[in-house]
Design brief:
Helix content of chain A: 25-40%
Shape of chain A: globular
Strand order of the largest sheet of chain A: 1-2-4-3-5-6-7-8
Order of helices and strands of chain B: HHHEEH
Largest sheet of chain A: 8 strands, mixed
Number of helices of chain B: 4
Strand content of chain A: 15-25%
Oligomer: heterodimer
Largest interface: A-B, 26 and 16 residues
Helix content of chain B: 40-55%
Distance between the termini of chain B: 19 Å
Radius of gyration of chain A: 18 Å
Structural class of chain B: mainly alpha
Strand content of chain B: under 5%
Radius of gyration of chain B: 13 Å
Number of helices of chain A: 12
Largest sheet of chain B: 2 strands, antiparallel
Shape of chain B: globular
Number of strands of chain B: 2
Amino acid sequence: MPTACLPDVQVNYLQLGLDRVGAAPLVMLHGLATNLAFWYPLAQVFAETYPTTLFDLRGHGRSSMPLTGYTPPALAEDLRELLDHLGIMRANFIGHSFGGSVLLCFAHRYPERVHGLVLADVRLRLLQPSQEPKAWPNWSRLGPNLEKVGIHLADDEPEGGYRLLEEMMRWELRGGHKSSDGPIPKVLEQLLPPGGSRRTAERWVQLLEGTTARQEFLKGEPMTCDQLAQLHKPTLAVYGENSPTLPTAHALKELWPHTQFEFVPHAGHFFPLSKPERLLIPAQKFLAGCR
Amino acid sequence: MPMPTKLEIESSFLSILEDMTQDWDLDVEEITSETQLAADLNFSSVDIIHLVVSTEEQFGRKLGLDQLLMSDGRYVDDLSVSQWVNFITQKLGGPS
């Protein structure tokens, strides 16, 4: 896969469907502790219609891991530099989870470069400052199952999502599925980024322990609610019905009456891979109208 | 261009794997047809996508490798070198 040598980071990327001349480009951003492979299955379908670009965020996948530069606005600058490098002046974007937070920082700073936005299960600190497990729709089922595999997560942990991700990755490094006596409850399987591996988990721990990423991820989006409300871009927002990010969805609904919302039944945070059609179908319809 | 034999395909594929993993700290002494990519070579999902791109570049055509990698829209757990080589051989039109 090609690498873009940007001023202070090397970004691994992949472009599909480049022969789709005339269609608006599509750029896809993955979330934390995963990589561009998260989007690969869906990107294959989108690339039948749109020139589609996937890339690994700084510190993820096969991109380099500089010591700093992991706040959402800093990662939005990586995106801008990558687009400049690829000659993409304006595009549609899809962002999952933290990738969506980066995307909104980008759209806030460079609105002229955005046709439309698809947000998939995005939590914004601006609208959802804490993420305590006790408020999660499936916590009563999830908490006991976590305890069974030796993961204790306090139900009032303000950064429950990040803590859970880190604990799941450390569990994977301890042997994960292989260390368990029986099959892993589905509720836990849904917590691991799909396509994960020991190598991905090692890299995640290295990122948290060897860089400033842990503190920088928590910086949030440098904008006000008014500024977010002013971001008049065609937007589709899709959320899992069991996801801890739902408070963001409800706050966005108030803020953006123009936005189309979809809620995926019986789905958690990683529904773009567990139920890809629930993102694909509305996104294709939405993108067809974004020109 | 003559159709590569299965042995030639395997040799090319092993070269790609060796290039990719030469700097990795692995316990595996030699990559063979039985080697599993995730379990033995510690491949992550992005490494698999890199392997897809490198393999298609090597053979100069699209090989539809996503049919091998995915089942019901999800990545399969793991694949051996021989499963990759058989699939590539079949796609290139040779006996698997």
